[in-house]
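Request: How about a record?
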Amino acid sequence: MDLILWRHAEAVDADGEMTDLERPLTRRGEKQAKRVARWLLAQLPPQCRVLVSPALRTRQTADALGTAYEIEPRIAPGATAREILRTAGWPKGRQAVLVVGHQPCLGEAASLLLTGNDDGVSVRKGAIWWFGQRGGGERENPFLRAVIDPEQL
């Protein structure tokens, strides 16, 4: 199974007129999402399942892919690392899953996969962390396949 964690691109700051879930991407965020989406489209395996937080900024990030996705409330802001992994079907899933979500839960999920604890790592806005899995059987054996920051592309 491949698991790709994609943090939403840069969004406007919260203000008193909108809720956290209503925050849209900035123009810079739109460009970040398009750059990363171009790279992802060239790399994603066929039949990749795309799960997206219900927040506007994550939906706009995923829209850059131009493919179908599922809005998944279980990965909304405030989700835990274990909820992210469970919702994605890690580690027993049969297909690749792309999760478009938020910090700190994506960083905590990445840390859990890398180290076994959910202390968290910093996932930059618009970046992806792509995990693969070696072997099978009873052990997960995750490995980090790629980290892509929009500024690298």
Remarks:
- Residues 6 and 100 are 5 Å apart (CA to CA).
- The helical segments are 27-43, 56-63, 81-88, 105-115.
- The chain has one domain: 3-152.
